[in-house]
Amino acid sequence: MTGRTGKADGSGTVRLLPWARPDGRPCYVVGDGTGYVSRMADRVESIQLGMADDLLGHADDLLAERRVTGGELHYLASRLAESLRDVKRVAESRGARLAQVTGQGPEAHVPERR
C-alpha cells in the first residue's frame, strides 16, 4: 500500500487509473509512468477527453433545436453525466501526479471513494 509520500515501497509514483474495479472502487498503478498500464491509461484518458469534446458539440447542436423530446434530453444528460465522471477522474489523476512532481504530496488530490 502507499504511504504519505505517494510512493509504494519507494518504487514509483501512484497514479489513479481512468477505470474502476468491477465493484466501483478506484484502480491505481505504481511506477515511473512509462510502463504498459500507464501507456494504456494515457490512451484511455485521451479517448475519454476526445469523447467529452464530441459530446459537448452534440449537446450544443441538440440544445439549439426547438423540437427536442424529453427522451432525447434524458439520454443527453445521462451521457453528459458519464462523461463528466470520466473527465473528473482524469483531472484528479493528473492533479495528484502534478502534486507528486511538485512535492506537494498526493494526499489532498486523490480523494477517498464515497
Number of strands: 2
So how many helices? 2
- Which percent bin holds the helix content? 40-55%
Distance linking N and C termini: 19 Å
**pLDDT < 50 stretches:** 1-8
Widest sheet: strand order? Answer: 1-2
- The global form is elongated
> Structural class from helices and strands?
alpha+beta
What's the average pLDDT? 85
**What is the C-alpha radius of gyration, as a whole number of Å?**
17 Å
Q: What descriptors fit this protein?
A:
114 residues, alpha+beta, two-stranded antiparallel ribbon, 54% helix
Describe what is shown at a glance.
With 114 residues, this protein is of the alpha+beta class. It has 2 helices and 2 strands.
Task: Please describe what this structure looks like.
This protein is an alpha+beta fold. Helix content is 54%, strand content 12%. It contains two helices and two strands, in the order E-E-H-H. The protein has helices spanning 36-64, 70-102; strands at 13-20, 26-31. It has a two-stranded antiparallel ribbon with strand order 1-2. Strand 1 and strand 2 form a beta hairpin. Helix 1 runs antiparallel to helix 2.
